[in-house]
Amino acid sequence: MSRISVTGNSFTTEAGDTIIFRGLNTSDPDKLKKDGYWTKSYFKEIKNWGANLVRFPVHPPRWNERGHEAYLQLLDDGIKWAGELGMYVIIDWHSIGNLRTQMYQSDIYDTTPKETYDFWRKIAKRYGNNPTVAFYELFNEPTTYNHELGTITWEQWSDFNKEMITIIRANGGQGIPLVAGFNWAYDLTPVQDAPLDIEGIAYVSHPYPQKREKPWEAKWTADWGFVKHKYPIILTEIGFCGPEDPGAHQPVISDESYGDAITKYCDERGISYMIWVFDKEWAPRLFTDDKYTPSRHGTYFKKKLQSYKY
Known about the structure:
By secondary structure, this protein is α/β, with parallel strands linked by helices. The chain is 35% helix and 18% strand.
């Protein structure tokens, strides 16, 4: 695996070639292990669907309940299988809420600044030299939940991210840090006037269909797409499900018109994206049974991913 770097507004290989990522999110590796899915065959199926990148969402309580060393062994296996199949990895600290006030959307996302910093120190030490681990997604979805979780400014959020990046790099982490915007990682408008003054990073948005009303394109450009003019951006969660589908919830309810719009938008601009989620229970689910039978949105994105020529 070639070490991936940031060059201008793109991701590049060691040979200097631009690479665009299109991949799938796993569910929490702890869940997949308990369900019997954390196997190389699961990763082979992800590869078969056309992914060149896979994202591992690590929930803080699961990290602690399994024990850090035991959880790292799960990650060891997943990273090894992904690399053997030619896929890169995002490790994602999967919390939702306000790191400043330490208030979160629900208990599954509870963490602290110290625990978050320590997580990234451990990840950097263990995988810093491993080129398969191309990205470190510092914090999944920052949100104040319309101030129900308190307040945080962009300057304060930038300081948290700079601290994480400093710790990662001081501990040998060579992967690319990914910085999410507010509003559940949707809104990157502060980057217009106050980008992080750190080299070699990329930005994240999660533009699910109900974040804005149709037509989406101009709103996406104003809210996050403009970032691509100067910096790399990766949509680490996209997807949709119908209102009748299991687990359907705000903001993911839509139809194939969203799939057409978001993939066209990304393809025209060279933006990387990841589909949520390669699990038969979590929503929007990509498959429905142990045979990996695609769901409605799985059918759409499997066909789309397999259409790319790498």
